[in-house]
Design brief:
This is Chloramphenicol phosphotransferase. The protein is an alpha/beta fold. The chain is about 35% helix and about 20% strand. The strands form two sheets. A five-stranded parallel sheet has the order 2-5-1-6-7, with helices on both faces. The chain has a two-stranded antiparallel sheet with strand order 3-4. Helix 5 runs antiparallel to helix 6. The longest helix has 19 residues, at about 100-120. The two termini are about 25 Å apart.
Length: about 210
């Protein structure tokens, strides 16, 4: 379920209720190339309180090469692995899978985010949900915390244009465009297709400041 861009949706019971004027966590979930990291930085600049920005890329940057990425990763099936999938409407599709060790690493990262909050910090999470197991662990780990859940959308043609421009892994945007939102309930939705990061950040900051 996704809230209209200008309205908040009711929170699911497991998402809890707003406790303070600013949430402990602003959780940005969206496809590859949707502009989440740039949006997160714009949010950091616009919010009255300091927020740490961390996300999937933060976790993946810590993973040894042998356990991640492409064909040279000897243990990639256990860790993280890029997959070349069948083309869709003539377009390449590239997925990112995680094995048991990769999931263990992700769970540790989720718990680290929670501990940052327990230490008194506020966090912006920049996430691309890799599957239901990852989603469910996030929801369980953050249960009871004050979280503003934000869907970051972008039209597929623009996602793919950005993907080519940034020279990322071609096909990951198409693979992740819809699947990252499966089973999610949000408080707010933004669309970065034509709106600037600053405009989207203002929308989120306004929602975050509501008592």
């Amino acid at each position: 379920m996704v809230a209209d861009e200008l309205n908040q949706s009711p929170r699911a019971p497991h998402l809890g209720r707003r406790q303070t004027s600013l949430p402990s966590i602003i959780f940005l979930n969206g496809a590859s190339s949707a502009g989440k990291t740039t949006l997160g930085r714009a949010l950091q600049a616009s919010l009255a309180e300091p927020y740490l920005l961390m996300g999937l890329d933060t976790c993946l940057a810590m993973v040894p090469a042998e356990w991640s990425g492409g064909p040279l990763g000897a243990h990639r099936a256990q860790g993280f692995q890029y997959l070349d999938l069948p083309h869709e409407n003539g377009k390449p599709v590239s997925g990112l899978s995680h094995g048991p060790v990769g999931l263990r690493m992700l769970k540790g990262f989720h718990r680290a985010v929670r501990e940052f909050v327990h230490a008194g910090n506020r966090v912006i999470v920049d996430e691309m949900m890799l599957g239901a197991d990852v989603r469910d662990h996030w929801l369980t780990t953050l249960a009871g915390l004050d979280v503003l859940w934000v869907a970051v959308h972008c039209d597929l043609p623009e996602l793919e244009r950005r993907e080519l421009a940034r020279r990322g892994r071609v096909g990951l945007a198409r693979w992740s465009a819809d699947r990252v939102h499966e089973g999610m309930t949000y408080n707010l939705s933004v669309n970065t297709t034509t709106r600037s990061p600053e405009a989207c950040a203002r929308q989120i900051a306004s929602a975050a400041s509501e008592a």
